[in-house]
Design a protein that fits this description.
Structural class: alpha+beta
Largest sheet: 8 strands, mixed
Oligomer: single chain
Shape: globular
Strand content: 25-35%
Helix content: 25-40%
Radius of gyration: 17 Å
Number of helices: 5
Distance between the termini: 32 Å
Amino acid sequence: MARPSAPVVPANGIDATATSEAPGGGDARVEVCDICGITIAEKHRHLLHLVERRIECACESCWNVRSGDPEYRPTGNRTLWLPDLQVPDDLWAGFQIPIGLAFFMDSTVTACVVALYPSPGGATESELHFESWNRMRELNPVLVGLEPDIEGLVVNRLSDPPAYAIAPIDTCYALTGAIKMNWEGISGGPGVQEAVTRFFAELEREAVPA
């Protein structure tokens, strides 16, 4: 059953709520730690709240202290480009994902693989049938090494050829954030396609071959 997921982060992987106006009421924004509230650098670490499936910006101190908490996991740090991933059309159809954009994560909270796909309101999630994901892994042994909770398989089947990558989970959520930020009207508008194209181009530049 598909259902709305937790809030997502925008295209740069930073939670838009974790900002504040600069002194004097100017337009400049500063990043803050979601846990303790102190100002942090634009490039900083993230933590995944497991139960709420929420990405949180973290200062170094909070990241070090909270990484070992049962409810948190540090996000992953590898990006693998997978040009040879095998995803037959009938297997994809069995996932029952209504669009060709999604990411998959192995959730220790739900004890199954969850597919999350973008929509105007953010990420919508759907739990996969065990048999479907098993077949996916049999066809693609690289997915056996997918780290639970902290990594995801991100998919773009709207491009030609389709694009696949293993990425940190905050990067995966950034795809849904980019679509939410750029959505216009009923169909999404040209801004969504541009955001998706830009997202996967940047992902491929950052990735290493599997």
